[in-house]
Recover the amino acids of this structure.
């Protein structure tokens, strides 16, 4: 029970800090909205012509924008570990009579929750761009965003656990984030791409988040035949892969966090 309370406290602290930081919420929504309404509107004509009006480009890229918000928020929520280390708060937490595993899991849960909330805010825009969502579909998309957020937060924690400065963490994340995002198929279909790009997309964890959310979000908006051309795998396959990746990142994240001094 002590470890459970400790994990809950870490989770609650991260979520509370996020909810109280309104400029952070607004700033983290600015970039996805810029891509959706400026970049998406500029290319919507080409996508509509290619699909004979069955799919608008903003509808196509909307699942990728959801994943963008989730991914960036989740990764940079791990920066709090480096921040807490620099200001001494992490040392106080580590000497508490709570398992370091519970602390690490609390950080993962906190980052995943924050990222999911960010994705839910963007999900409210779906009707504006013509995406039809049913109640069951909304619940499914929220679950998929939470799973992707868990993968991304655990990955960020793996990097943050060994970083001593904010500058070092930000440099590594900036180097990794954009390739992970652009190779995920957020902006273009991954069918009939060059072999090297197809191979890189298969080892990109974000690919399975974008693919699953796109399959769920567009299920009631576009014909099944067209949906099959803009997705790669069944949603169940994407969920299994993301579940395996979540475990694959959480285990080393917990282990590295336990070795903090």
């Amino acid at each position: 029970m002590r470890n459970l309370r400790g994990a809950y406290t870490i989770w609650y602290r991260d979520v509370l800090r996020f909810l109280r930081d309104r400029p952070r919420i607004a700033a983290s929504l600015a970039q996805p909205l810029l891509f959706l309404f400026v970049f998406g509107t500029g290319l919507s004509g080409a996508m509509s012509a290619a699909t004979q009006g069955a799919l608008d480009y903003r509808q196509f890229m909307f699942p990728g924008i959801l994943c963008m918000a989730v991914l960036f928020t989740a990764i940079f929520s791990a920066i709090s570990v480096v921040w807490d280390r620099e200001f001494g708060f992490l040392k106080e937490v580590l000497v508490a009579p709570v398992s370091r595993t519970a602390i690490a899991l609390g950080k993962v849960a906190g980052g995943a929750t924050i990222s999911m909330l960010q994705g839910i805010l963007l999900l409210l825009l779906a009707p504006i761009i013509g995406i039809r969502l049913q109640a069951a579909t909304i619940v499914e998309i929220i679950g998929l965003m939470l799973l992707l957020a868990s993968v991304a937060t655990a990955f960020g924690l793996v990097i943050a656990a060994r970083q001593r400065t904010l500058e070092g963490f930000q440099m590594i994340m900036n180097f990794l984030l954009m390739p992970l995002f652009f190779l995920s198929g957020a902006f273009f279909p991954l069918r009939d791409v060059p072999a090297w790009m197809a191979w890189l997309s298969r080892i990109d964890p974000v690919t399975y988040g974008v693919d699953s959310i796109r399959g769920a979000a567009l299920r009631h908006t576009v014909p099944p035949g067209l949906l099959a051309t803009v997705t790669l795998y069944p949603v169940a396959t994407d969920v299994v892969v993301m579940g395996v990746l979540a475990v694959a990142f959480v285990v080393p994240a917990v282990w590295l966090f336990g070795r903090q001094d």
User: Anything to note?
Assistant: Residues 2-258 form one domain. The chain has a mean pLDDT of 81. The chain has twelve helices and no strands.
